[in-house]
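Schema walk-through. Below, the input block comes first and the output block second. Nothing else is stored per chain. Lengths vary across the set, and this one has 103 residues.
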Amino acid sequence: MGKKNWIEFDNQEKKSEETLKLDTFTKRSKIIISKQKKGKKGKTITLIKGLGTEDEILLKELLKKIKVFCGTGGILIDSNIQLQGDMVLKSIEFLRKEGFHNL
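--- output ---
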């Protein structure tokens, strides 16, 4: 059978774009991960501060990835990531996999 409608894609370009995006984060900055309960009607949240960038698009992409990894909801407020629940250990594990080592 012929390959009439067959199109092959090169994923190398996409991988190089992703590595360039991750390199734009200042991975040497001190990242603070804390658990808070105050002012949230008794609900616990995990707060991630100091990611080293103000670029909202990159932060939203990182937020989406970390929400999928942790299996929880989250929001981006003032360049800080807030995750629902006690996700301190999971978020540390995720950020280390992404290349952030100053936790």
